[in-house]
Request: fold
Amino acid sequence: MNVLLEGLMYILSTVGALLPIVNPLSAVGLVVSITSNLTDAERHDQIKRACIYMFFILTAFLVAGGLIMNFFGISIPGLRIAGGLIISYLGFRMLFPEPSLISRQEQVEAAQKPDVSFTPLAMPSLSGPGSIAVVIGVSSTAQQSEHVIINHVLVAIGIAITAIISFAVLKAATRLDRLLGATGMNAIARIMGFLLICIGVQFVINGIVEISASIVRPAT
Reply:
């Protein structure tokens, strides 16, 4: 029973860490604008494929995260600080939004593309630098445990759940856009931005604490 509970908590913690950063609500306006010339069936197909791409992109970094860190000699505290800065930056962009997360020219080009599922929907909208940094950090943490494979599977399940939630949100993009309007979407974006800043700052604090502990420990 305890093992199942720990596994469930591992999955939920992955979803809790990823969902505010993936933030499918922030992509609702983008979906509406770049799929305006598509039918409902075509839009749903593009969204479904984008979420599948997102799952495979993040899972690839989950599997290769430890190798990437070892190859470049990146420590876990260093990764947390860098990831925290990226997440905080994204949070500030949402708290004090620019006209769009992608430029107007990119939106026009995306609207003319026959397939927008991989870019800009899957990347960089859903699986951007912040979510990739989180997944690599989770991967490195999972490799420190005795149950490496099980933990990676649990994290992959958390990524899949996040992708499913993103699909459900984006599938209702047009209804959400009409229901919330620009004011409602901006309010939600600012709330999520504030949460991202808090998460990013905590990542930086955790990284600094770990570095400080590693410096002090040899002297004691």
Remarks:
- The longest helix spans residues 173-216.
- The mean pLDDT is 81.
